[in-house]
Amino acid sequence: MNNRISRNFQNIFLTFIAVCGNVCLPTLAFSQSDIGIEFKDKGQIVKTLTLSDLATVAPAVSLKIFEIHEKKDRVYKAYPARPLFDNTFGKEWEKAEEVVFISMDGYQASIPVVKFLSHDAYFAFAHDSDVPFTMTNVLQNNEIVQLGPLYLIWDNKKSKGLLEDGASDMPYQVKGIELTAFATRFPNLSPPAKASAEVQLGFLHFRKYCMACHMINGEGGGKAPELNYPTSVVEYIKPEYLTRWIENPSSIRHNTLMPGLAQEIPDRATVTKEIIAYLKAMSTTKRSPKRQDLH
Prior knowledge:
This protein has helices spanning about 5-20, 50-55, 80-90, 115-120, 160-165, 180-185, 195-210, 235, 240-245, 270-280, and strands at about 35-40, 45-50, 60-65, 70-80, 100-105, 110, 120-125, 135, 145, 150-155, 175-180, 215, 220. The chain is of the alpha+beta class. The protein starts with a helix and ends in a 13-residue tail after the last helix.
């Protein structure tokens, strides 16, 4: 089987897992150790490593964290992120601006490099017990989700700041990792140049809590609907309902998988207000996704 066919087969397999979930797992014999993880720098592939390869790059550890998605402690088998980045990208990765994580389900988290330099991150690849690498995500209506190939976790047991981040920087089903500059990768997410301080803060909140799932002008995650083009969400949802939708989606739609803005976030009501201010500002700056490189 040549490399292209092998990669296509793996992508089909990963999509199958994402769609059918834990119900299908017992019937599948394909080993996740054969799945290739792409490491890119500014759009160019640097390396493609399987989970088996990662075992030779960085030593695996057992790490107990507070699992935000399940609201309880969990122990994972994981590889430390910094040695893995050093081996894959060289020390130059520390000078990059952002690390983008591409997940099988369309989630696309963009995390500042400075966070990886300030806190200890790990790539989990299994539970620390002989059970399937899945999770019951209480933030998404108790949906059972596949976590592999890789799941980005943080050593958060002693860090109030990491706990306050909620699940915003914890992508699972990671299949690609890319060093980039935010403005280069997402040029049409920034608010108008003369936007107010409230809008600028809303943009930062949207980057952190929303864009991994949602797109603005075709840029961001593909797990949930586009919010700005061709019609902005602020144009068809009343302000009071939009606030409820952001903070408590299940109060609007039964069985929704959208998680509300994390309760742990300080001054949560103000954060919601500022996100809506950003969305209103972007409603006057619409660009067709058809004209953009969506990577």
